[in-house]
What we know:
Layout (H helix, E strand, L loop, with lengths): L7 E4 L6 H10 L4 E4 L3 H9 L4 E5 L3 E3 L5 H10 L3 E5 L8 E2 L4 E2 L6 E2 L6 E5 L15 E5 H8 L7 H10 L10 E5 L4 E3 L18 H9 L6
Parallel strand pairs: 1-2, 5-11
Antiparallel strand pairs: 3-10, 4-12, 5-10, 6-7, 8-9, 9-11
Amino acid sequence: xxxxxxxxxxxxxxxxxxxxxxxxxxxxxxxxxxxxxxxxxxxxxxxxxxxxxxxxxxxxxxxxxxxxxxxxxxxxxxxxxxxxxxxxxxxxxxxxxxxxxxxxxxxxxxxxxxxxxxxxxxxxxxxxxxxxxxxxxxxxxxxxxxxxxxxxxxxxxxxxxxxxxxxxxxxxxxxxxxxxxxxxxxxxxxxxxxxxxxxxxxxxxxxxxxxxxxxxxxxx
Length: 220
């Protein structure tokens, strides 16, 4: 149900990658591509007049079907839930950033297809205790705007750091998070193209990936 969303890509590229973005624009002509000028202003211009925002980053891979309309309606109905995470589920028992096992919290499931549920993030472990993130989660814009408008951030990593620093304001009013029984998305950090932080990743060259893209290869 992709028609229910307005998809916007904020992008920034070195000279050698500009041509590949022009290719993407042609292949995905229903997506609005916004070349980054000021990341904060660019983001706010997109989301400020919307009720919901679904954050996704460029190394997210979706592994199953889902309905944007269904997860949106579920979030709007579940007033005690801060967001809907597509990266979490009963199968996500390994935390990649810390390279260790993580405990699955007690999840209360709903009778729906696909099955989704909610859990308390305030006393959860590792990934499950990280309710505000940008890789593949849906949020109410009105919850985020009060701090997104006043805080300073210049890139997605800084944005996520700001979100993390503001989770405390929701621990009483929205202590729960929604997720599917089985996750439908994951991040595939095969390299880093930023210097803001030193997140764990592999070290595949962006030049190599560009060459593969120009040779016609795409992720299935």
